[in-house]
Amino acid sequence: MAGAQKQYEKWGFIDKAGQWVIKPQFDWVGEFHDGLALVAAGEKGGYSEKMGYIDRTGKYMWKPTK
Description:
Layout: E1 3-7, E2 10-14, E3 20-26, E4 28-29, E5 37-40, E6 51-54, E7 60-65
Antiparallel strand pairs: 1-2, 2-3, 4-5, 5-6, 6-7
């Protein structure tokens, strides 16, 4: 995976070819470490509203919490 990319005010992740691996859906994302990334999605744009960890496929490993 190449890294985080922003599109239309939301963050997702692209591969080295520039293709979306995880579509933009987060207000904030961290880098992947040991296969997990911390992500945040806020109901009103506040990234601290809900935070959780996803794997490299975009599946939540720890569901978002306040």
